[in-house]
């Protein structure tokens, strides 16, 4: 039974189980070869999944691991995308503009993180929502910088003499960034920083009494999350080729939060699963659109309503998301045929009051 | 003189708009006070109320007042069922799970309403449409705006009497103060919560019907919820008079910003007020600061 642990260092390892390195290596190898085999359309779709995964990892650090909900993360995606595109247009080389886009985004994260330090839960969600719509409006009005409604064409840069253009190039670029970001997140999570974030999520009061500086760690969480999301934004810019401020609105923010919720809060696997789901859903709808009965497929609001429905169902029936479901499935096979339903029965939960009186 | 009149008119128009924000905010606050859930679909409940009223008055050709009453009843019933079927199941989950749940519900409502009533903006005539009330001194107002303000005042009086004088109202106050104690006193807390959802949906429907004379109905009218949010936060989320006062303040500030500041600032106003309040005075105008004891 591989799930028995015999020492604490087992919990601290990057690869928790012996087989992990092999399996993930295999996955990486398959992903590296894939563009040579698959059609351009599918490569583009998977590149999009990678980009959403990066943003998902960014938001997961904030929402899943620190317990801070942001309904304005699309703004960071937008800031990253515009920063990268504008820097490239000014002649900054791509290898510099990409990290700079992340840094500028992270700075924006600090700007919104510091005033919202005192808030938690609901208020933070509202504040970030307001922040998101303010950023969009500024983007629309600041015509000289962003091009306003006319949009901003994203230049195609060269990296080591290779032109970053088209799905395959974006695919490899996004894959590289995703792997780096995942390694970064995994390392953060097993380091004191990550442990502090998780402690804050589980109880701010007890974290504070253990000597964790709430203000500092929350700001760091915001900066990290915004920075990673900004990187995703820069890649998103190369994927769509033409930026418009209104594409980074509330709807995208909600999609990003949907990624972490559907994928499963508090797991990096979840961020990737959720991103795959959210990025693929529109295509899946398009595939079956004509086969649906009663003309449902041609209903105008189909996609957002399906998002809404899935979100509602996941929260009601599987609060741990796709990753939770996957764990249950795995456990079922490991324990076969001794599986007990009760092992995963949800405990009866009661309303936890956040009131102080 | 002209300036004073202009200012007065802006203030009254702002108050009327603010009353709508305040009523939607009231819906947020009622539910939050009772269940600690935040209903991000409150604006969409308002949208549904508007479409119910449209169905009764314009499609079925009922009398305006009968249609008004039926629309409120229908929306309230919808709110009750919504809590009993969906929201009750997520009790005990973290607060933001509920936020996401209601956001999801909002998308569903919008799509369903679009499927049933279409995506075009529609309107219907009310007794207040395009009539003018002359208050003298050159102040001319639409009866529509006056009807909003009067309607809000009446609704608030009714709610006040309900919460302070009736058995059910007091039971609601009790369950929102301490669920467990309320259970022990024999109050059916779950039913009471569903009833609060019903009231809150009903209030949203009232706001919708009051809004009809000044604005058209469409699927996206629920986005007013974001401004209502600013109102609720300004009033100190959890204070009923605060929600209304906050709504009126937001409404007036918005009108003034629309008149005196460059174009585009009107859309920003509520968000900036919201962020400003959250940063400077997170407990709002009427909230209390309480620190947790360990």
Describe the structure.
The complex is a heterodimer of chains A (357) and B (294). In chain A, strands 1-4 form a two-stranded antiparallel sheet. Chain A is mainly α. Chain A has a domain at 39-256. Chain A is built from 15 helices and four strands. In chain A, helix 3 runs antiparallel to helix 11 (214-240). Chain B has one domain (2-222). Helix content of chain B is 71%, strand content 2%. The longest helix of chain B has 34 residues, at 2-35. Chain B has a two-stranded antiparallel sheet with strand order 1-2. In chain B, helix 2 (42-59) packs across helix 8 (189-211). Chain B is built from eleven helices and two strands; from the N terminus they run H-H-H-H-E-E-H-H-H-H-H-H-H. By secondary structure, chain B is mainly α. The chains are: A mainly alpha (357), B mainly alpha (294).
Across the major sheet of chain B, the strand order is 1-2
Protein chains sharing the most extensive interface: A-B, 52 and 49 residues
Distance between the termini of chain B: 59 Å
Estimate the helix proportion of chain A, in percent.
Answer: 55-70%
- Shape category of chain B: globular
Quote the beta fraction of chain A.
under 5%
Summarize model confidence as the mean pLDDT of chain A: 83
Using DSSP, what is the number of strands of chain A?
A: 4
Oligomer: heterodimer
User: How many beta-strand elements of chain B?
Assistant: 2
Total number of distinct structural domains of chain B: 1
**What ranges of chain B have pLDDT less than 50 throughout 5 or more consecutive residues?**
none
Question: What is the number of helices of chain B?
Answer: 11
Order of secondary-structure elements of chain B = HHHHEEHHHHHHH
Structural class of chain B: mainly alpha
Quickly give the structural class of chain A. Answer: mainly alpha
């Amino acid at each position: 039974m591989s799930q028995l642990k015999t020492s604490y260092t087992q919990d601290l390892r990057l690869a928790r189980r012996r087989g992990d390195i092999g399996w993930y290596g295999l996955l990486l190898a398959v992903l590296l070869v894939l563009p040579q085999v698959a059609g351009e359309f599918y490569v583009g779709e998977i590149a999009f999944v990678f980009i959403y995964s990066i943003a998902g990892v960014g938001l997961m650090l904030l929402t899943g691991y620190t317990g801070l909900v942001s309904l304005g993360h699309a703004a960071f995606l937008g800031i990253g995308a515009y920063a990268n595109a504008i820097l490239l247009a000014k002649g900054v080389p791509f290898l510099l503009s990409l990290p700079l886009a992340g840094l500028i985004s992270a700075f924006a994260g600090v700007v919104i993180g510091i005033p919202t330090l005192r808030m938690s839960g609901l208020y933070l969600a509202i504040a970030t929502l307001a922040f998101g719509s303010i950023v969009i409006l500024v983007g629309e009005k600041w015509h000289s910088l962003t091009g306003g409604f006319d949009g901003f064409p994203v230049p195609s840069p060269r990296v080591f003499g290779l032109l970053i253009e088209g799905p395959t190039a974006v695919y490899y670029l996004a894959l590289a960034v995703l792997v780096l970001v995942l390694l970064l997140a995994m390392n953060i999570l097993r380091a004191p920083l990550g442990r502090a974030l998780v402690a804050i999520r589980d109880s701010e009061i007890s974290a504070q009494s253990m000597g964790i500086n709430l203000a500092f760690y929350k700001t760091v969480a915001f900066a990290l999350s915004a920075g990673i999301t900004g990187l995703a934004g820069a890649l998103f810019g190369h994927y769509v080729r033409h930026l418009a401020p209104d594409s980074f609105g509330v709807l995208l923010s909600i999609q990003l939060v949907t990624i972490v919720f559907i994928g499963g809060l508090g797991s990096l696997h979840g961020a990737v699963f959720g991103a795959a789901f959210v990025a693929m859903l529109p295509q899946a709808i398009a595939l079956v659109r004509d086969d649906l009965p009663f003309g449902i497929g041609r209903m105008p609001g189909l996609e957002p309503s399906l998002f809404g429905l899935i979100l509602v169902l996941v929260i009601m029936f599987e609060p741990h998301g796709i990753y939770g479901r996957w764990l249950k499935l795995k456990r079922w096979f490991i324990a076969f045929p001794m599986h007990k339903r009760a092992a995963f029965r949800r405990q009866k939960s009661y309303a936890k009051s956040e009131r102080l009186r | 003189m002209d300036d004073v009149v202009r200012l007065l008119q802006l203030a009254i128009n702002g108050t009327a708009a603010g009353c709508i924000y305040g009523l939607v905010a009231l819906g947020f606050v009622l539910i939050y006070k009772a269940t600690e859930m935040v209903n991000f679909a409150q604006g969409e409940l308002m949208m549904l109320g508007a479409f119910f009223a449209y169905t009764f008055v314009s499609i079925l050709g009922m009398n305006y007042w009968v249609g008004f009453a039926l629309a409120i009843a229908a929306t309230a019933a919808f709110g009750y069922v919504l809590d009993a079927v969906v929201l009750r199941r997520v009790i005990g989950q973290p607060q933001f799970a509920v936020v996401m749940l209601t956001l999801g519900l909002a998308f569903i409502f919008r799509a369903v309403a679009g499927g049933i009533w279409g995506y075009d903006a529609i309107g219907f005539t009310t007794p207040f449409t395009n009539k003018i009330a002359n208050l003298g001194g050159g102040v001319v107002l639409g009866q529509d705006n006056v009807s909003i303000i009067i309607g809000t005042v009446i609704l608030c009086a009714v709610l006040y009497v309900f919460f302070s004088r009736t058995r059910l109202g007091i039971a609601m106050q009790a369950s929102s103060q301490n669920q467990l104690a309320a259970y022990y006193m024999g109050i059916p807390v779950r039913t009471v919560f569903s009833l609060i959802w019903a009231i809150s949906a009903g209030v949203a429907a009232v706001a919708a019907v009051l809004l009809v004379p000044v604005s058209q109905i469409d699927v996206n009218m629920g986005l007013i919820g974001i401004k209502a949010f600013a109102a609720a936060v300004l009033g100190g989320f959890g204070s009923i008079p605060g929600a209304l006062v906050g709504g009126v303040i937001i409404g007036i500030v918005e009108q003034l910003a629309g008149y005196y500041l460059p174009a585009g600032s009107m859309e920003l106003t509520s968000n900036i007020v919201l962020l400003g309040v959250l940063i400077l005075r997170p407990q709002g105008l009427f909230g209390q600061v309480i620190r947790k004891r360990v």
